[in-house]
Every structure is written in C-alpha cells, then in structure tokens.
Design goal:
Two copies of one chain form a homodimer. With about 475 residues, chain A is of the alpha+beta class. The first copy, chain A, is about 35% helix and about 25% strand.
Chain lengths: ~475, ~475
C-alpha cells in the first residue's frame, strides 16, 4: 500500500464530511458493519469509549448512582402506556416479529430508549420513602433506524450510550439531580475530550417529548454545525403517573415520585474527532488516548541499535512507572517516516524519536501531535513528559475554546442572521419565546434553537424575528 | 412486610429450584422483565458482573487481548455463509422484519453469537502477517429465544456474556490461545467465585458445531446437576475458509488463518448463587461482594449512641483505607434483628456489630456470613479484617471443593450408573469414544458427556456401555 492510500487524502477545510469519514476509517477507530446504518468499533475506538465510561462511572458512583442491566426487547403493549413520549420514536423502531419459525404475539421493539421498561420495574421496586432516591444508570445501546446517510459515531442505527433514570421524593431533589448530571457531563467533556460546551435549556419545541423540560449541552463543530452532546431531562411526574411510580411517605401518605433521565452517547467521540483532527488525521486528547506516547527507535543497518533499544526500553519503563500508556514501534522493514505518518494518523499525543545522534547528545526528540512542534529533551528530563501531556490536554481545550468563540456571533437583526447562517456557527439572538417565530426561523433558514444558555433569560431586547419583547437569547444554529 | 415475606421461605435441600428463584429475587440481584424469558439486573446483581468483567479484562489485557464493539443485528444473507454452524441456532433466533412501518429486505437476526459478523470484518482487516495475531473480545449480550421455563442467570433469552475471537498465523499458536483462555477462565472462577471447575474437552457430539474441538469447564451444582461454566473453541480453519480470513506471510504466500472463539456468561453468577447460598439466602465470596463488610450500630433509646456512632465511623474509615467496601446500616426504626436478617439474605460476607457492651469491652462482634460463626475482635485488631476476608474467600472454595468431591463418583458398571444417576452428581466412567454408546446412554438415562477431563485419555479400561476398550474417562451427568 502506498503512503497515499494510507494517509488522509482530503483537507479538513475543503471536504469536511469526507475528511471525517477517512479519519474514522483510516485511524482504525471504526468500520462499517454489513447492515446499512451500523458500525463496528475497533479496539482503538472502543478504548476511547471505555475511558469515557470509566470517568463517568467514577463520577456517577460518587453521586450515589449505581449501574444495572435492562434487556433490549420491549413489548409493544407496554409502549402504549406513554404514547405521547413514544410516538416520536415510531418511524425509527426496529420490530421483532418472529423467534425461530414462530410469530411472537405482542411485537417486540428493540429499545430506542428505556423509560417505559425501567419505570415498569421501578413501580414494583419502589414502595416507601426508604427506597428513594433510586438512581440507576444503564450502559447499553439504543436502536433507532436511520434512513439518512450513515456517519460513524454521529448517525448510526445502533449506538453505544448510557441512560440514567432516577426517582426522587421531591421535585426539588429531582431538579437538583438534573443539574448535577449536566455538570458532570460538562466537566467530563471539557476535561477529558477538550471540547467546550454551552449548557442551558432546550425550547419547548426541541425538548424530549416526555420531559417537563430538557437541559442540554451543545457544541459548535469546526464546519459550523451544532452538535447536541448530551441531555439531562426533568420528567416531573409525566411518567410516574401512567407507570404508577408511587411511594408511601414517612407519614404513610402515598405520592407520585419525581423523575429524571439523562444520556450521552458515542457521539462524543465524533465530536472529539471533528474538533481536534487535522489534515494528517486524528488528534487525541492525552487523557483518552489508548497510547499516549509512542517511541520510535531510529537506526540504519543496525548501527548503534543495541544502545538505542536499551535506552528506548529504559524510557518505556520510566514512563510506565508514571502510569503513562507507552508503545514502542520496533517494526522492522518500515522506515521512520512511514512510522511517523502512521502514528500521526492515529493521533498519538507524543512521539519520541531516539537515534544515534540523540544518544550522543544524551537527549531525545519529542514531537507533539496537536501542534506538530518538535523539541528536544535531555535524558534527565524524561520525567517532564507527564507535565507535557497535561499541558497538551489544556492547550487542546484552549484552542477549541478559541475556535468555538470565533464561530459564535451575537446577532440582533434577522436580515444579518439570514445572510450569515449559511456560513455556519452559533448565533446568539434574542427571541420572544413564541413557537411561531421559532418555526418561521427554522423554515426560512434551516436553523434551530440549539440551547437557551443559562443566564440568557429575562433579557430586555427585541425578538430578532417579530421584534416583540424577548425572553431569552438562545443559540440558533444548523445542527447535525 | 413481615419477616416471613422478606426472608427465604423454602429450604435449599427441599426445593432447590424455588429456593434459587427466591434468593435471586429477594436478595435483589435480578427481576423479571415484562417479556417472557428476559430479566433485568438490579445494582447488586450487575455489580457482581462488573467485578467479574474487570478481573477478566485485566487478565485479557495482559494476554494481549483488546475490547471492541459489534452491532446486534446480523443480516440473514450473511448467516448463510456458514450454514452448518448457524443451523443449530435457527429455532432460537429473534428476527427483525420491520423498521418503523417498512419491511426490511434482508431479515435481521439478533445475534445469537457473532462469529459470522466478526469474521466478515476480520477478513477485511487482516492482510498480512503484520496484522496477526488479532485478538479482540466483545462484552455484549447474545439472544437465544428460550422456550422452556425462565431461570435468572441460567436460562434467559438475552444474556450478558463476553465473546472473544482471535486469529493466528499458525495452528500451534491458536491452540495455545485456546488453552490460555481456558486457564484464565478456570483461575478466575475458582479464585473470584470460589467454584471448583473441571476442565477438558467436549465430545464430538457436544462440541460447538463450528469448532474443530471445544474445551470446556464444568461444575457440579449442589442439586447434582452439571453446569457448563465456559467454553474455549479451537476453530481451525473452519471459518477462515468460507469467510476468507487470509494473510500474506513474510514470504508473501497467502494462507488461511487459524482461529479461536471463547465465552463466559452471567451463568457464572447463577453458579455462585447455587454453590454458596443457604437457607438464609445469598452467600457472597468477598472478592465479588458489592458490600464486603456491613456495620450495624446497636443502641436503645439513644443510649451511648454518640460513642457508638463515632466508633462505627472510625472503623469505616479504617477499613476503607484498606480498600474494603463497607456500609453502615444506620436506618432508624428498624431493629438489629431485622437488619441482621436483611444483610444475611443479601449475602454480605462480614457483619460487624457495635453496641454499648462492645464499647465497654473495647471490642466488636464479627459475624461471618458463610459459616454464620460469631467472634469478637478487639479495637486494636480491626486491621485483621482484610485477612479474615481472604480466609473466607479460601474457605468457601475449600468447602465447595469438598461438596463437589462428594458429588463425584467413579463408575465402571452401567447397572450401577443407571441406579445412581437419578441421585445426580458427576460420574467418571470409561467410554469407548463411539457416538453410538454416548447416544444410548443419553437416551436411557438422560445423562450427557459433560467433559472429557485432560489427563483422562488413553485409559486401559472397558467402556461402561459396550465393554470395548475405552479411550477416555469422561464425566457423565445430567445438565442444566
């Protein structure tokens, strides 16, 4: 295979969509499955998901949340209980009609989400105030048939996600939980993936149909499109009433409980690829990189090979003691140049080069993936690599924040909005709160209200569409 | 709820099946889902699975195995490629025929196992010897419609498991992998779950239909029935040929690869419940217990309450520093007796009681769940609890070994076999190796060859059925 076949052949700026697909496939994160709309994760892709899962799990546990397991099949009859919520999923549901040769009586849905199933069980499990709060998270997949073009991590018919479902004795406690989760989401995405997010509420039109309100975190991608990164819903008693999730309080009076649900999916990995990747391929934030440091020993005709390899081994041990994930690329018959390209394509945060001259100078060459800077580090300074990884992590978030800022504009005039929306970006524009204006804007420009940022409410401006008094300054954008 | 409703109401010896179901449900490990054949895991049940998963993952990683993700839907057309292997699953397959209102062209199977899907991809991913070995494990669920009665963890239509699929350049390397995995399985089940297993090969009749041979680990349960605990298959080139899993060797000659597949499921949790549980409920091996030590503070009318609670808090901190999972049961309005029963039902390995008299005597009471022994420990000896947990873990395996040994009999005469098989147990009996005898024995007694233990081959005895020269001494038993 020639270098051209292996590397990324289009520029991120020129053909973003093709660039994205090439990065996913060529960095070996994922591949297409034989069924349209479905993908497979290869070890490097799944490893990023495992890293996120373990960070979320740690934070969920310290918030009193535990994990459980729900089956994938939900009987059609159960779905009827909360028709309004489920109706939105109907066109996307995969239906099981047969087991072996036999027709199943009540058709079985592959879960598009598990509210109905979880709350049927919660209603059995919860009897008294002693059973509350009940906070369970499920790491599973959801299935929603996607008719439009498949995009790994962004638009697939089955996707990995977590869905949390909590039950509380009071409205106040449930609403606090909604916000607590949204904060966990925001911190994790910013600190682990280096992607800045804007948090706030969805409009009535855009909220999860079963929710009283939906909080969301949204990000703007380099191509100017918005991506929903995760949602945390306050369900109020919308489900506890039809599903009879009730509890006897200390005074023995029965109440309907207050509920929340929330989820993030592997879409976060898609956001990470889009935010940080470049024309050479993937760029991984150190915290989630399966390999954080790759060491490439360089020698010709075995000259100085032993010295180089023993130094490389020493560095590996040194770094592993600091819990850095290291890999030595000692593949024979491949040139250093080939290896450099290969690891750049795969986005490994730091490459270390050790050749005969480096041994002479008692130093190594360090190449940072994210800005492609090279520098040298003396043998005595190897310990600094931990700090360098931390700095890379911070710099990546900082750069992404600057990108996002440059892609965010304040707008007051609808004519200006219309002329600029095609370029893409986040547009902060005052809104009267009326569905009519929201729908007209969508119809005329294709842009939705992505999020009404916290703190943007109660503004004293004019709706950009109808010029009536505004109630908030939502972010409008075209979305994925 | 009265104590009777909460506790186990049947004896393990009297009605094993009902006892088992009560333990699973009342210890809150699992519950039935609204679809026949499906169960839900509650946090205590899922936590045991997570603990096993993390132990297996650690061992897999150090054996060079990485995790990936496969979708749940497999097109019917793909299944045709290896008809022989798939035919066995046919009556159990759930079929998706519709997405939304639309009929899907090629019916989609919910995976009963992923060989066909994985190897379709492997065939793309593997080009040269550099891509080998390829060793990927998938933590997912498999679906096989169970027509017979549902039994949580033992017989369910969807089950959590891992399926590993490895590809090698040589037969020798693949066969080594098969054994390496079987060893990991055996060690983990014995060390973590305290269940002794017998390892060996399946007969031709009982092997996985796609395999050249199947290695297995089997255990005998207290009711005398055998349980298959995990299998590791040598697939030879049975799949690499139809799926074209080929590689160019160093000399550039193309070869079909050698493959293995292997899996364990949440059935292991069922085995743990059956092996260790008693009439009071669940008994958890310390290593997998979500809570290892529960502390019950005991006081009446707040007498000495402050001193007791501060001591209890001190013990908790002390134990948590040693990474012991501790819980303080400070629920008000519940008697110590109620709490003792509750934690015994849930199988927590150690209960610590701290009351006014204990404070006086500068000691605590320790109750071990597995043998229900009580002893006292002075305040200065709290550090010994780590060791006590280790001792419990070892004793539980030791006891289980004795149980298994008592349930294993050597048999040479078929008449004796027939008279004893109804009592249950493992029967080691010489066999000529012929399918005909194996089938006759099954037909006449209901017993299968569960495993041909390693080292039992080449025996110089007479087949218990036909009296011809035996080739091995398999274990015969009735199974789950």
């Amino acid at each position: 295979m020639s270098k051209e076949d292996i590397g990324i052949t289009v520029s991120k700026n020129k053909d973003f969509s093709e660039w994205y697909t090439q990065v996913v496939l060529k960095a070996k994160l994922a591949d297409y499955a034989p069924v349209k709309g479905l993908i497979v994760l290869r070890p490097d892709g799944y490893s990023i998901w495992e890293s996120l899962r373990s960070t979320f799990d740690r934070k969920f546990v310290s918030n009193g949340i535990r994990n459980g397991f729900l089956p994938i099949l939900i009987p059609e009859s159960l779905l009827g209980k909360e028709k309004k919520h489920f109706a939105g999923f109907n066109p996307e549901v995969f239906w099981v009609t047969h087991s072996g040769e036999n027709e199943v009586g009540d058709r079985l849905a592959l879960r598009p989400t598990s509210e109905t199933l979880a709350y049927t069980l919660y209603s059995k499990w919860i009897q008294s105030w002693r059973d509350l709060p009940l906070k369970i998270n499920f790491w599973n997949t959801a299935l929603r048939a996607e008719i439009k073009g498949t995009k790994p991590f962004l638009r697939t018919s089955e996707f990995l996600w977590q869905e949390g479902h909590t039950v509380h004795a009071s409205q106040e406690e449930a609403e606090k939980e909604v916000m607590k989760i949204l904060e966990i989401y925001k911190n994790t995405v910013e600190e682990e993936l280096g992607i800045p997010v804007t948090i706030g509420k969805k409009s009535e039109k855009e909220k999860f149909v079963g929710a009283v309100y939906t909080t969301t975190m949204e990000s703007i991608m380099p191509d100017g499109k918005a991506l929903q990164m995760g949602t945390s819903h306050f369900l109020g008693q919308n489900f506890s009433k039809p599903f009879e999730v009730k509890f006897a309080d200390i005074d023995n009076v029965e109440h309907f409980a207050w509920q929340t649900s929330w989820g993030v999916s592997w879409r976060l990995i898609g956001a990470m690829i889009m935010t940080h990747g470049d024309d050479q391929g993937l760029v991984l934030p150190p915290k989630v990189a399966p390999i954080q440091v790759v060491i490439v020993p360089i020698y010709k005709n075995d000259e100085g090979k032993d010295k180089i390899l023993s130094k490389v081994e020493e560095i590996r041990k040194n770094l592993e003691l600091k819990e850095i994930r290291v890999h030595i690329d000692d593949r024979s018959e491949l040139s250093p140049g080939y290896k450099f390209n290969d690891w750049e394509l795969k986005g490994v945060p730091i490459r270390i080069e050790v050749g005969p001259k480096d041994i002479e100078k008692q130093s190594i060459v360090i190449a940072k993936r994210y800005n492609r800077e090279k520098s040298s580090l003396s043998f005595t300074e190897i310990g600094k690599i931990s700090t360098i990884l931390d700095e890379i992590q911070e710099s990546m978030l900082k750069t992404a924040r600057e990108q996002a800022k440059a892609n965010t504009k304040n707008i007051t005039e609808y004519t200006e909005f219309k002329s600029k929306i095609e370029e893409g970006g986040f547009f902060c524009a005052p809104w009267c709160g009326k569905l009519e204006c929201e729908e007209k804007i969508k119809e005329e420009t294709g842009a939705d209200i992505r999020v009404i940022p916290f703190g943007s409410e109660n503004t004293n401006k004019k709706c950009m569409y109808c010029h009536e008094q505004s109630i908030s300054i939502p972010i409008f954008a075209k979305g994925y």
